């Protein structure tokens, strides 16, 4: 569509209705994008939040090579050959990331690591990995966000700050929307925030509970005990920083609601106790089903981190930290998770997909991944400290803006993407499909016993 | 002027916006090098907004700029920093068999380095106004 701009220049404009923002796990799929097709930029992102706007409006086609080896421009095929060679020659190759790409690309990753006897891990291991471990221990009282919108009259956020990390979570799913059984929006809901900091999220709360740092498990266990008829202890304030009466009131509200939900963040999984904290929270939600309907869900960060968990789970049986060195998948967080394999200096080759461990990992892991003991391969859409430190660096197009595909929202609902405009860079799917093929060829040549395994 | 605080790294909207603009760009670097401390701790350590401090632990050290918060925003004894390379410098690689490094609740030493330049728009904490 051609339209006239303010200075009467004709702009080749395209409108993309119901585009999906893949910045965070909310995957809002109601964004209207206005695209300047001549300049290849998005000029408006109607209904996007502050993070979504910055995601769409800052996307530009950068003038840089598709592939580099040690900083020098090479062809894509040369980069893929080099990457495949590195992975096949390595004694302990690892693959990490995948949370910012489509499921179709994620599907290529487990076969690559299977063929080279490596370890596959997603960003979940440094996000809600402990929650993934807790799911296996106590189960997941789950739901979809549509259910929450239509039914939930008690909404709790525990150890998270959605006002800054998932800004539209309140308006689209959990706090203000008018649902089938919550026709008055926020007036029909009680919103409780449990956090150690008075964040921006606390502003939307009907009840804000400022917990003593590191005392999540204690409060959760008190509430679990209350479900079994045990009184809240008198020294509750000393234990967790909250008055006994406040906790008793909270428990009554949880027990007497019609449909309760707890969204929990990394305040639980990243602090002392980790999977015990997540497990206690999900066990509490399960316990509350003795009185009412109660569910819990982790608030996931990256756009398709949920997809990464799903894809790796249906391919290998486990969501993250999976090792193929014995020819079959083995799951062991702490042994096969990326921070551990790097911090212990075990990995000698690392394929990083759509992720930036050099900026976000603990220092011992960064020291190893950037050392000459570990050959680093990066496939990413932007320049990052990881892509800059990589031996082989491949630039790809951005999912949801330049390429279509499938992503999973934080409640495990798959959503199809509507790209806005083409990119000169190849997609993650194209690059990983080529890499998978090359690694498989080398694996067969090397007579690796599992090189002919079929993957769905 | 030296003291100890417990660090709570986390996400922030500004950090999210900054990383979309580019992790190698000024905005992201500025956001991820801003340490938020409570009003009470700042008074005890003699710190003001925009001061440059060194934060360190047994893993590493980094220099960051202080932002003093209003009362009640952060528990006394705690500091907040958005995730990024400076906070990673202080994370231990030990995951206690979970894959997840203990990224929240680490004890850090805070040492005053020099006075910084305050932005004109920076407001003093509420209690300082009286």
Instruction: Give me the CATH fold name of the largest domain in chain A.
Output: Rossmann fold
Side-by-side strand order of the widest sheet of chain B: 1-5-2-4-3-6
Number of strands of chain B: 6
Task: Please report the distance between the alpha carbons of the first and last residues of chain A.
Answer: 40 Å
Helix-strand topology string of chain B: EHHEHEEEHEH
Summarize the structure in words.
- The complex is a heterodimer of chains A (456) and B (130).
- Chain A has 19 helices and 20 strands.
- By secondary structure, chain A is α/β, with parallel strands linked by helices.
- In chain A, a hairpin with a 5-residue loop joins strand 1 and strand 2 (10-19).
- The longest helix of chain A is centred in the last third of the chain and has 18 residues, at 428-445.
- Chain B has a single domain (2-129), classed as Barwin-like endoglucanases (Beta Barrel).
- Chain B has five helices and six strands.
- In chain B, strands 1-5-2-4-3-6 form a six-stranded mixed β-barrel.
- The mean pLDDT of chain B is 88.
- The interface between A and B is large, with 62 and 42 residues.
From the structure above, extract its key features.
heterodimer; A: 456 residues; alpha/beta; Rossmann fold; Dimethylsulfoxide Reductase, domain 2; nine-stranded mixed β-sheet; 20 strands; globular; B: 130 residues; Barwin-like endoglucanases; six-stranded mixed beta barrel; 5 helices
Briefly summarize what is shown.
Chain A contains 19 helices and 20 strands. Chain A has 456 residues and is α/β, with parallel strands linked by helices.
Task: Break the fold down into its secondary structure elements and pairings.
The complex is a heterodimer of chains A (456) and B (130).
Chain A: E1 2-4, E2 10-19, E3 31-36, E4 41-46, H1 50-57, E5 67-69, E6 72-74, H2 76-89, E7 93-97, H3 103-106, H4 109-115, E8 119-122, H5 129-138, H6 145-151, E9 154-158, H7 162-165, H8 169-174, E10 190-195, E11 207-210, H9 216-227, H10 236-240, H11 244-256, E12 259-264, H12 266-269, H13 275-288, E13 293-298, H14 305-316, E14 322-323, E15 330-331, H15 338-343, E16 349-353, H16 357-360, H17 363-369, E17 375-380, H18 385-389, E18 392-395, E19 406-408, E20 414-416, H19 428-445
Helix pairs in contact in A: 2-19, 4-19, 5-13, 9-13
Chain B: E1 2-10, H1 13-21, H2 26-32, E2 34-37, H3 39-45, E3 52-56, E4 61-68, E5 78-82, H4 85-88, E6 106-114, H5 126-129
């Amino acid at each position: 569509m051609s339209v006239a701009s303010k200075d009467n220049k004709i702009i080749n404009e395209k409108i993309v209705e119901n585009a999906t923002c893949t910045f965070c796990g909310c995957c809002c799929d109601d964004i209207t994008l206005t695209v300047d097709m001549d300049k290849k930029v998005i000029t408006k992102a109607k209904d996007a939040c502050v993070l979504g706007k910055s995601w769409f409006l800052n996307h530009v086609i950068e003038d840089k090579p598709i592939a580099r080896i040690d900083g020098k421009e090479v062809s894509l095929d040369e980069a893929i050959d080099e990457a495949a060679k590195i992975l096949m020659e390595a004694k302990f190759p690892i693959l990490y990331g995948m949370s910012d790409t489509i499921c179709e690309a994620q599907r290529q990753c487990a076969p690559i690591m299977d063929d080279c006897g490596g370890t596959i891990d997603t960003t979940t291991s440094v996000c809600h990995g402990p929650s993934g471990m807790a799911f296996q221990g106590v189960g997941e009282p789950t739901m979809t966000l549509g259910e929450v919108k239509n039914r939930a009259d008690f909404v709790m956020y525990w150890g998270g700050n959605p006002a800054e990390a998932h800004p539209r979570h309140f308006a689209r799913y959990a706090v203000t929307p008018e649902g089938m059984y919550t026709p008055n929006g926020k007036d029909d809901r009680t919103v409780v925030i449990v956090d150690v900091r008075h964040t921006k999220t606390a502003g939307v709360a009907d009840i804000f509970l400022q917990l003593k740092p590191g005392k999540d498990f204690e409060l959760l266990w008190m509430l679990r005990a209350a479900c079994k008829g045990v009184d809240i202890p008198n020294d509750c304030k000393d234990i967790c920083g909250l008055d006994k009466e406040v906790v008793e009131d909270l428990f009554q509200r949880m027990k007497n609601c019609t449909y309760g939900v707890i969204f929990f963040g990394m305040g639980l999984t990243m602090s002392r106790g980790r999977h015990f904290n997540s497990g206690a929270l999900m066990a509490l939600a399960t316990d509350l089903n003795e009185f009412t309907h109660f569910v819990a869900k982790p608030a996931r960060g990256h756009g398709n981190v949920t997809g990464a968990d799903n894809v790796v789970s249906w391919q290998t049986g486990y969501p993250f930290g999976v090792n193929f060195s014995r020819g079959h998948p083995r799951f062991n967080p702490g042994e096969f998770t990326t921070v551990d394999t790097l911090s212990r200096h075990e990995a000698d080759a690392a394929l990083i997909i759509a992720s930036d461990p050099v900026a976000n990992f603990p220092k011992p892991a960064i020291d190893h991944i950037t050392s000459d003991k570990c050959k680093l391969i990066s496939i990413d859409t932007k320049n990052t400290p990881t892509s800059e430190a990589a031996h082989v660096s491949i630039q790809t197009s951005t999912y949801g803006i330049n390429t279509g595909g499938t992503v999973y929202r934080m409640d495990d609902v798959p959503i199809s993407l509507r790209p806005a405009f083409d990119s000169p860079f190849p997609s993650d799917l194209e690059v990983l499909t080529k890499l998978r093929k090359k690694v498989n060829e080398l694996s067969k040549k090397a007579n690796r016993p599992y090189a002919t395994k079929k993957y769905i | 002027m030296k003291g100890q605080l417990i660090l709570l790294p986390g996400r922030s909207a500004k950090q999210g916006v900054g990383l979309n603009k580019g992790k190698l760009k000024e905005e992201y670097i500025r956001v991820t090098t801003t340490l938020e401390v409570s009003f009470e701790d700042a008074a005890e350590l003699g710190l003001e907004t925009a001061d440059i401090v060194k934060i360190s632990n047994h893993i590493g050290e980094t220099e960051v700029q202080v932002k003093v918060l209003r009362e009640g925003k952060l528990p006394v004894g705690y500091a907040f920093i958005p995730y990024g390379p400076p906070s990673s410098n202080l994370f231990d690689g030990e995951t206690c068999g979970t894959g997840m490094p203990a990224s929240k609740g680490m004890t850090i030493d805070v040492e005053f380095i020099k006075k910084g330049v305050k932005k004109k728009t920076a407001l003093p904490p509420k209690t300082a106004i009286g």
